Each structure stands twice: as structure tokens, then as C-alpha cells.
Amino acid sequence: MLDTAQNLIRRAGKQLNLSDEDIEQILKINAEHIFEIKLSSGTSLQAYRVQHNNKLGPYKGGIRFHPAVDLDEVRALATLMSMKTAAVGLPLGGGKGGVAVDPRTLSRQELEELSRKYVQHLYPHIGPDKDVPAPDVNTNATIMDWMVDEYAKVSGDTTKASFTGKSVTNGGSLGRDAATGRGGVIALSELLKAKGLASKELAYAILGFGNVGSFFATVAASTFPQWRLVAAGDSTAAILDNAGLDAMQLSKLKAGGGRFLDWMQAKQITNDALIGLPVDVLVLAALENAITKDNMANVKAKIIVEMANGPIDETAHDYLSSKGVIILPDIISNSGGVVVSYLEWVQNRRGENWDERKVNSNLKRYLTEAVVGILSVSKEMQVDLTEAAFIQAIRRLNG
Length: 399
Ligand code: GLU
Description:
The protein has 399 residues and is of the alpha/beta class. It has helices at 2-15, 20-27, 71-87, 108-122, 141-155, 176-194, 211-223, 247-255, 271-275, 314-322, 330-333, 336-350, 356-381, 385-397; strands at residues 31-38, 44-53, 59-65, 94-99, 131-135, 202-207, 227-233, 238-240, 267-269, 281-284, 303-306, 326-328. The strands form two sheets. Strands 9-8-7-6-10-11-12 form a seven-stranded mixed sheet, with helices on both faces. A five-stranded mixed sheet has the order 1-2-4-3-5. Helix 3 links the parallel strand 3 (59-65) and strand 4 (94-99). Glutamic acid binds at residues 60-62, 134, 136, 164-165, 309, 334, 337-338, 341.
């Protein structure tokens, strides 16, 4: 995964005629914090925080709790965060954290212990002006609340600006929970507008129905009723209904801990079959490397929206692009989360609480400008949207 991210930077750097040294400078990771967290149960867990680049502002990026977390993945995700904040025009850098753990195996008490100990290990290296973590895969507002509380205890900082994605009653921002999904909907609608397809009816499928996928679907259902959700997949199964699935109903099912495998109101298919459906748009909102050389030839969608980080590897990306598939790149289409994180950080520092309309209109402005920006770079330099997004990021990082 790190290779894919770094090669995308190398390619964009070459397009901009940067020297090898300049490109190496952008690839360089500033700091890596690798530590072990010992729970009182005796379990030892491997933890990481990688700080890639802070040229444009404090390091920014989520913390994930997942069994597949390793140093290579966290390095790749930290690198993508720097590209994301730069591409979308935020005054922030990029970092990422993670713990190699399946949080479903932990009790609530252990989860809190893990979250607090993560901060105890890391606190000299983070803070409102240094590095501001946020939620990512399997982490949420409750975990951020524990972390910000622990940070306040050890550092004395009471601004709560050391973490974003907190609950609204604890300094979080309205609109943050839906922000990544909402940003993806805005990005796709801007792309469709530019292609003259804004009012066209379209069928779409979503792989991954966690926080990001479910909000994408519910926001889309309320703003673009002409987009029909025909299939959705979670880690247990995918479901298909060509007449259209009810996004709200599915999001309630998932919020209540339900699984698509048990959902009998639609046809059951596999996630691989979902990837191969003849839909107009495929939304990838699960994990990285969902499309690789093994399944890339099955894709029939004309547009792919990358809502996970790195869901298409390099080989598959090049193959799909050569077939004319339009890929809306992760560093733009899933940047809604970090955009509203930034707005949360601004509110915390100013002691303000914005209403949801103000948050959402700022989110829309950032996403619209980012998509319009990469469409114009893509035209100007005759490159695909992924390369255009990396070019946009590198221009800012190197400016
Ligand atoms: N984890 C999210 C991402 O990958 C959000 C990061 C943030 O809000 O800092 O973009």
C-alpha cells in the first residue's frame, strides 16, 4: 500500500518536473512512534503514530483499531493524509495512528483503557499545534472523548483542540459524523455536473456500509433521489435490489449491530459479485485494496468513488483508467471527514459552536473547489483525476 501511495507522488512529481531530491523530500516521513500498550488483563498490543509532513500545519489524521494495522499501512495512510489535506487546501499536515487489535474482542472497559494508554504513551508528540488525531476505522466519538480527556489530564490543555471527531456535547462539531459520506456525495455530484450528468438517473452500489458508506447512502437519498442504491455490502455479505434499497432502513440496521447476511428483504450476493455489477457508479467505502489485479477485470461501473483510503491498488488503477473508468480519488472524495475535523479544530480554538448549516456550507465549499480544481488540472495536463489530485497537493506542498 505504501508503494502505491509513493508511486502516485513520484508520478505527479515527474509531471511537475520536480527533481528527484524534491520528490524524496515529499516522500520523507518526519517521525515514527512505535510502542507497545499493555492492558491490565496482560494483553500486549502494538501501537503506532506516523507523522509524515507538517509543512502546511500540524499533523492531522485518524487512529484506527484493526487487526491488519502494521507499520507499512500506517506509513501509507499518513502519507495519503498529507496529500489529502494539501489537495483540499487545508492548513494542516498529515499523520496517522493505529493499534493492531480487533476491538470486538475487547470489553468497553478495555477499550477505554487502550484509548487512554495510547494517549499516555504519545502525549509529548501530539497537541493542538503539533498533531491532532481523529477517528478512523473502528474508532469513534466515544474513543476521541476518552482520548481528549486523557490528554487534558496529562498536559493541562483544556481547549479540547488536541483531538477532533469528539461527541458534540464534548467539543465536537455538528456534522462531523456524517462529514466523510456527505463530502463524497458532494464530490460525486460535482463530477456529474461537469460531465453534464447532473440530473441523470443512475444506479450505484456501495462496498462497505460502516460510518462512511452508510452516511454516503443516506445523504445521497435525501439530496439526490435520482441516484438509486441497488446494492450494498458489509463484511458479512452484500444485498441487491434493482428496484432500489432503502438507505435509511439499512443504516438503522447497521447502527443497531445488524448484518447484511441476516437481511432477507433483498437478494444476497457476495462482495465480489457487487464489485462486478453493471452499475453506473461503484462506491468503495470498505478498506484498502478492495480492487486489485485479481478482480479489476470484473468491474463494469463507469465511475468509481474511492471513499476508503487506498481501495484500488496501482495495477488496478492503471488498468481501470486505461479502460476509461473515471476514478474519483480518495484524497478528494473522502476528505469531507478531515475538512470538518478542521472546522471542529477552528471552533475549539475560537471557543465557538457553529450550527450545522454553517458547517455543511463550508464543507461544500471546500469539496466543490477541490473537485473543480482537479478537473481543471486533469484537462490542463492531460492526466487522470488521481494524478491531478496528487499534482494539486504537491503544488501546494512545494509552493
Ligand atoms: N480518518 C479520516 C481520514 O482518513 C479523518 C481524519 C481526520 O479527521 O483528521 O481522512
